[in-house]
Amino acid sequence: MLLVLAAGWYLIHNTLTNLENRKIATGFSFLTREAGFSIGETLVPYSAADTYARAIWVGIINTLVISVIGIFLATILGTLVGVARLSTNWLLAKLASVYVEGLRNIPLLLQLFFWYQLVSEALPPVRQAIKLIPDYVFLSQKGLRIPHIANDIHAG
Question: What's the pLDDT score for residue 77?
Fold first, then answer.
């Protein structure tokens, strides 16, 4: 036990000494510095002049919001497919089974590559975007774009 503690102390002391000799800062002091980058979608006010701590906070909030939405939609989809799989309608039950078994047996990373390829190659570039609702909703390689209500109010 003493040998393990001594080895741990040596490694930590050696690392801190080398970082100090090379003038590499350690710790969390960077959290108070200006981040210098913007975040596209935020529920709380954020600008590039805000701190790294604020950027992390915005990232946590964005992650929680997307997680809640994803859990809600996945619950609805799972319930519908589960009920469809138990259905007495032969076609509906078989389609639900193919969907479940297909998604279950394909690795998630492969599915992500497939959907990314589908979006990046099958959809048109931004300038030739598909207009789902003219002048309002566009679908392109960059994704689905829906204007903010605030932008419409200021534009009108």
Answer: 94
- Give the per-residue SS3 of the chain: CHHHHHHHHHHHHHHHHHHHHCCCCCCCHHHHCECCCCCCCCCCCCCCCCEHHHHHHHHHHHHHHHHHHHHHHHHHHHHHHHHHHCCCCHHHHHHHHHHHHHHHHCCHHHHHHHHHHHHHHHCCCHHHCEEEECCCEEEECCEEECCCHHHHHHHC
Q: Is the pTM here over 0.70, yes or no?
A: no
What confidence tens digit (pLDDT) does each residue in 98-144 have?
Answer: 999 988 889 999 989 988 887 778 888 888 888 888 778 888 877 78
90/119 Cα distance (integer angstroms): 33
